[in-house]
Design brief:
By secondary structure, the protein is α/β, with parallel strands linked by helices. It has helices spanning about 10-25, 35-40, 80-90, 100-130, 140-155, 170-180, 200-205, 225, 240-255, 280-285, 290-295, 315-330, 340-345, 350-365, 375-380, 410-420, 425-435, 440-450, 455-464, and strands at about 5, 25-30, 50, 70-75, 95, 160-165, 190, 230-235, 255, 265, 270-275, 300-305, 335, 375. Helix content is about 45%, strand content about 10%. The longest helix is centred in the first third of the chain and has 27 residues, at about 100-130.
């Protein structure tokens, strides 16, 4: 049972929050001020501190100075970008505005406590294995290469361009680079360039003066300035409008930012980590991305391999996510059935880790409460396991003359060999004889329309 300390001077709010947390099986202690919290409790024995920002005597952010490794969640009724950034800059783990939604509060508490536990476990693991990176899972060759590159580039101030398919975890790389840099105690500001309307993105990034445009009723600090001293992570930088690209280039070249409507610029010290799934070189050639900015951000490139190229990592990630969602959804520990393991390791995961996470979460929700394992059908990524005689005639082996790029004789040989031997050979044996991996065998089955036959064991089980 996690122990949470609430630091709030309003008794009504404090009592309501205590009751909410206790209903969700948390042990709760209370304090009305920073002074009471530090004198009445040993903070090292607390798992999470939830503190109001404005308290009598001293602000809630003063707890950050004495909390050590204990995460601090700041509450405030002053829901502004500045107060959020200031709290995060000083070391707050997260930020929530009052009045808060009950579901949002519980979800935030679970996330913060879970993240703190994961960080402690990861730190312990990193002491015994210097190759790993906090928050990332996998020991495949491509991941070891990624860890090595992160360890090398993180201590520098070099700009990093992270390239990878959607869902591969590009923000995790940015967080790892920031955590291992000399800026780790400064803010990491993450911005998804594709999620901000084109008309607002310059104001969001670079700030604006009062009256700079219609609706600018007050001056506002931009996210670039908010990251001063720390790291700015621009996800999907390929979606950044050309006008904003020119301003960003000035930040990188001159180390200064000028808000919209301002006369003077201000100096900023920001380390940029950018990410994209697009080919920026090609976009630059098509004049859809500034060529000078491309060369400026492409100092060190980090490439994230898609999940289908990470071999045994897939199962390790799936089991980690299964444990995570069982805990989050208050489910007893579940395990993957042998068929589910086969499905997870054979499927190509076009949506990568994000798709795998969604499948695991869905399976945990839908699995019967009395069950102890997740079936491959519940994952909803079931591969084609129907008997060949039941297969759709449209999916029988077909001629490949429609694609002249393929070597027809090799494909015809593959189709004949699989059909002739799949009754007597396992998938592993077939793949070995053909000199390909099981995953490649499955992909070619899909492409040629050769469904798998049920194994004798499965047929016997159904008959019984």
């Amino acid at each position: 049972m996690s122990h949470i300390l609430i630091v709030e001077d309003e008794a009504i709010i404090r009592t309501a929050l205590r009751k909410l947390l206790e209903r969700h099986r948390y042990k709760v202690s209370e304090a009305g001020s920073v002074r009471e919290a530090t004198t009445k409790y040993r903070l090292s024995e607390i798992d999470l501190i939830i503190s109001d920002l404005r308290l009598p005597g001293a602000p809630g952010t003063d707890l950050l100075k004495v909390a050590g490794d204990v995460p601090v969640l700041i509450m405030t009724s002053y829901a502004s970008l500045r107060s959020a950034v200031d709290s995060m800059r000083m070391g707050a783990t997260d930020y929530i505005a009052k009045p808060f939604d009950h579901d949002e509060m519980i979800a935030t508490v679970r996330r913060v406590i879970g993240k703190a536990e994961q960080n402690r476990a990861q730190a312990s693991e990193n002491k015994t294995s210097g190759r790993t990176v906090s928050g990332m899972i996998g020991d495949s060759a491509v991941m070891r290469g990624l860890y090595d590159r992160i360890h090398k580039v993180a201590p520098t101030d070099a700009t990093v361009l992270v390239h990878g398919e959607t869902g591969t975890g590009k923000e995790l790389v940015a967080r790892a680079i920031h955590a291992e840099s000399r800026r780790a105690d400064k803010p990491l500001i993450s911005v998804n360039c594709a999620a901000i309307p084109e008309t607002l993105i310059e104001a969001e990034l670079f700030g604006h003066e009062k009256g700079a445009f219609t609706g600018a009723q007050t001056a506002r600090e931009g996210l670039v300035a908010a990251a001063d001293g720390g790291t700015l992570f621009l996800d999907e930088i390929g979606e950044l409008p050309l006008e904003a690209q020119a301003r960003l280039l000035r930040v990188l070249q001159e180390g200064e930012v000028r808000p919209i409507g301002a006369v003077e610029s201000r100096k900023v010290d920001v380390r940029l980590v950018a990410a994209t799934h697009r080919n920026l070189r090609q976009l630059a050639a098509e004049r859809k991305f500034r060529e000078d900015l491309y060369y400026r951000i492409n100092v060190v490139q980090v490439t994230l391999a898609p999940l289908r190229e990470r071999d045994k990592d897939v199962l390790a990630i799936a089991e980690h996510l299964l444990e995570k969602y069982c805990a989050r959804l208050d489910r007893p520990a579940l395990k993957l059935s042998p068929e589910a393991v086969q499905a997870v390791t054979t499927y190509t995961w076009p949506g990568n880790v994000r798709e795998l996470e969604n499948a695991i979460q869905r399976a945990v929700i839908l699995t019967d409460a009395k069950s102890t394992e997740i079936d491959h059908r519940t994952l909803d990524i079931d591969l084609d396991l129907v008997p060949i005689e039941e297969a759709d005639p449209e999916r029988r082996p077909r001629s490949l003359h429609t694609d002249p790029r393929e070597d027809l004789s090799l494909e015809d040989y593959f189709a004949r060999f699989v059909i002739e031997h799949q009754d007597t050979m396992s998938e592993t044996e077939l793949a070995k004889k053909l000199g390909i991996s099981r995953k490649c065998l499955w992909e070619r089955r899909q492409k040629l329309g050769i469904p798998r036959k049920k194994t004798r064991r499965a047929a016997t089980a159904e008959a019984s």
